[in-house]
Amino acid sequence: MNENMTVMQLPSAIRLCEVGLRDGLQNEKQQLTWQEKVQLVNAMGKAGFPVIEVGSFVSPKAVPQMSNTDQVFSEMERFPGVEYRALIANARGVDRAIACGCEKVKLNVSASTAHNLANLNCTPSQSVAGFAACVEKALAANIGISGSISMAFGSPWDKEIPIQDVREITEAYLAVGINEISLSDASGMAYPTQVVDICREMKASYPQVNWWLHFHNTRGLGIANILAGMQAGFTQFDASFAGVGGCPFVPGAAGNVATEDVLHMCEEMGVETGVDLDKAMDISRSVVDLVGHVTDSYLLRAGKSKDLIRELPVGQIKNQTQK
Ligand code: ZN
Question: How far is the CA of 309 from the centre of ligand 1 (A)?
Fold first, then answer.
C-alpha cells in the first residue's frame, strides 16, 4: 500500500436507532393508525434493531401524528434487549411514559440561542436546567432519560453554532444528571470535516457522555456525516426508514439518512449493525406504501450492490460498447 494513503479508522460495530416512527412520521400528512405502527415496531424488533424511537409524548394538537404513541407502547411486542424510547418535551411526557410502560425518554433543546430566545424566552442552557424536574420524575419511576441538542452543527438563524455553546448545553445536561446526549443536525447543515472536528473535541472533553449522532440528509451529506462520525470514534447513529421525514422549522428539510442506506454501507464495509438489511428494506417498502409517496432512499430505488452480481451476458457487452 502507498505509505501516503490514509487508512480509514472504522469501528467494528455500530448501534443504530430507528427513528422513523417518530422523526419520520411526524412530518407526514398521512397519519398512521396505532395498529399500523405496532406492526412496524414489531417488525423492527424482529429485524434486530437495538434501539427504536417509537414516538413522542407531546401535545396532540401540535403533533397529531404522534397522538397514538401511548397506545402503540401499550400494544406492541417488546423484544428482549431492545431499547424502546420516546421523545418528550416536559414532565407531562414522563407521566405518559409511566402510564404506558415506556422505559426510556429523550428531551431536546435547540442549540440556537436566537431560536430558543424567540420561542421560549430563555437560552438553551436555561431550558436544559428546567429539565431537572423531568429527570427527577423519570429516575424515581426507573425510566432512563437522555437529551438531544438539535441544530448543533448550524441553524438557519446562526449558520454555524459556536462550539462553546454546544459545550455549555452539554454541561447543563450533565448538571441535571443526563449523560446520554445526541448531537443533532436537524437543519441539514453539517459537513464531514466539521463533524470530525466537533465530535473529536466533544468526545475528548466529555468522555463520560454516551454520545449519539443524528443527521438529516437535506443537502445529501447525511451518510458522509455518519462516516465522519465513525472516524471520530462515535458508534451510535439515528436513521429513518425509507429516509422519511423533515423538520418543521427548516424550509426544504429532508428526513434522516435512510436506514437501509446506512445498513448497506455498513455491510459493504464490514461494520456490524446486528440488523437484517433485507428485513429493514421490507419495513421501508411497507412504509412507502403507507405514506403513499416516493421517499429519499437509494437502496429502495437501486437495490443492494450484491444484487447486481449476475451471469455475464457473453458477447453482448462487446457489442454494446462498440455502439
Ligand atoms: Zn430529526
Answer: 35
CATH number at residue 72: 3.20.20.70
pLDDT interval class at 272 (50, 70, 90): very high
pLDDT in tens, 147-193: 999 999 999 888 779 999 999 999 999 999 999 999 999 989 999 99
**247 carries an active-site annotation:** yes
**Ligand 1 centroid to 64 CA: how many Å?**
17
What b/e sequence results for 21-39 when a residue is b if at least 16 CB atoms lie within 10 Å of its CB, and e otherwise?
Answer: bbbbbbbbeeebebebbbb
Is the residue at 297 inside a domain?
yes
pTM: 0.93
Cell of 74: 401499550
Exactly one of 102, 134, 199, 247 is catalytic; name it.
Answer: 247
Distance 107 CA to ligand 1 centre (A): 13
Instruction: Give the whole-angstrom CA distance, residue 19 versus residue 143.
Output: 19
Q: Is 289 helix (H, G, I), strand (E, B) or coil?
A: helix
* Contact (Cβ atoms closer than 8 angstroms) between residue 199 and residue 229: yes
Q: Tell me, yes or no, whether 203 lies in a domain.
A: yes
In a domain, 46, yes or no: yes
- The domain containing residue 80 runs over which residues? 15-322
* Ligand 1 center to 301 CA (angstroms): 23
Question: Within a domain: residue 8?
Answer: no
* pLDDT category of residue 318 using cuts at 50, 70 and 90: low
Distance between Cα 115 and ligand 1 center (Å): 16
How many structural domains does the chain have? 1
pLDDT (tens digit per residue) in 247-263:
766 777 888 999 999 99
